[in-house]
Design a protein that fits this description.
single chain, Serine Threonine Protein Phosphatase 5, Tetratricopeptide repeat, mainly alpha, 19 helices, about 425 residues, about 70% helix
């Protein structure tokens, strides 16, 4: 059955909202100088599109129509609030832009610059990490406040306040809407990649709740990664992060069984892996390696690629994986990396070698409540045949696990131990 004009209009508006919203919003924020005003005007424009497109048909360039309409809605809102400080100046500038004849010069470069400005503004170090993540998902990801709140298991009003505070912080601190200069760029770029990585991690292995994977967050992180690859093709770590996310997410369908139970890597049905996504991930890794500037995301992606490219679990090159974790630790040491290196070393050189690497971490008071440490410790103890000690370590890991799927898997392994 053919779609009605009303249905076609709604579908077109939804597509433009999803695909073009970040670019249009980025340009609006530059033009109006206010996050909230730009978001409100853009929402007005999409509501107008649903009415106008049903009546007059879908315009030839829907994104351009939305951009112009949103700018005019911003003008309307500013006219109603001219008394506010600084708004008269913004109104005059917006009206000048709206009256310009002909297309603006180098429009594509302008759009790319605006999107980069928006990325760096959302991930500005003056904002705390939780605010950076929320604002990035709201503005660049296009998720609603309710969707972000559900993904992070936070009440919607609390998430709304977090986003509002982030926007107010940008305004009050006079954070400039710009791409950082050359000296600032490397550190700021690491911050941007970290925000995208944190979004993906929460999606790939949810910290709490009854689902192991939150696919909506994985999808948003990968979409942001594609945008960064498009805007910064000369940055090796951008490609490395994208490769890492794609290679991990490609296995998503095999990580739980039909009943929602955890399936460890060795037992996964490889026919369920997304091989097109794996190819895209390996291509992204190759793109990063070609730039000859190794970094932590490229090394992590290379480790993941070794898991995926092994003909079967028994063929996994654990020696090389352990070596790569060693290189990663020298580049960017952290407890997470050391725990993973210990696990890989246990597979490569025997469980006692892995336990030796874990010993200083287990003695660190700051890590006593860190669940992954106790989960790996328990597994290495089990492999070494130290069943009584493994029982205690598994119990500690279970008690510290907030995710129901992970907790059930750890409990299953605990129950299988003798005694």
């Amino acid at each position: 059955m053919n779609a009605t004009p009303q249905e076609q209009a709604a579908t077109a508006a939804a597509r433009v909202f999803r695909d073009e919203r970040p670019a249009v919003l980025a340009t609006l924020i530059r033009q109006v100088g206010d996050f909230q005003l730009a978001e409100d005007a853009l929402q007005d424009a999409f509501e107008s599109a649903l009415v106008t497109w049903r009546r007059d048909g879908i315009p030839r360039n829907p994104a351009a129509w939305i951009t112009v309409t949103a700018r005019r809605r911003a003008i309307d809102r500013l006219r109603r609030a001219q008394s506010a400080a600084g708004r008269a100046t913004r109104l005059a500038e917006l009206m000048r832009l709206d009256q310009q004849e002909g297309p603006a010069p180098d429009v594509q470069n302008m759009i790319e610059d605006d999107r980069l400005r928006l990325i760096f503004t959302c991930c500005h170090p003056a904002l705390d990490p939780a605010a950076q993540i929320a604002l990035t998902l709201r503005t660049l990801g296009g998720l609603t406040t309710a969707e972000i709140a559900r993904a992070f298991l936070v009440a919607e009003p609390a998430m709304g306040k977090r986003i509002v505070r982030a926007k107010r912080k940008i305004a009050d601190a006079h954070i400039r809407y710009r791409v950082p200069s050359g000296d600032e760029l490397p550190a700021r770029m690491r911050g941007v990649l970290r925000v995208v990585y944190l979004i993906f991690n929460e999606g790939y292995s949810a910290s709490a709740g009854d689902r192991l994977v939150r696919r909506e967050l994985c999808g948003e992180a990968i979409r942001l990664g594609r945008l960064l690859c498009e805007l910064l093709p000369g940055d090796a770590e951008v490609w490395g992060l994208q490769a890492l996310m794609l290679l991990h997410d490609a296995r998503g369908a095999a990580r739980t069984d039909p009943a929602g139970r955890y399936v460890q890597l060795d037992d996964q049905d490889r026919a369920l892996w997304d091989h097109a996504m794996i190819s895209e991930g390996l291509h992204a890794l190759e793109q990063g390696i070609r730039l000859r500037c190794p970094g932590q995301y490229q090394l992590q992606a290379a480790i993941t690629a070794l898991h995926i490219q092994a003909a079967d679990p028994g063929a996994t090159d654990w020696v090389q994986i352990a070596d790569l974790y060693g290189a990663l630790g020298r580049l960017s040491s952290s407890p997470v990396i050391e725990i993973n290196r210990a696990a890989a070393t246990g597979f490569a050189h025997g469980p006692q070698a892995g336990l030796d690497l874990l010993a200083p971490l287990l003695a660190d008071p700051a890590l006593q409540d860190y669940q992954p440490l106790h989960a790996v410790h328990a597994e290495l103890l089990r492999q070494a045949g130290h069943h009584q000690a493994a029982v205690a370590a598994y119990r500690q890991a279970v008690a510290l696990t907030a995710n129901a799927v992970e907790r059930a898997e750890l409990q299953r392994r605990l129950d299988e131990l003798p005694g």
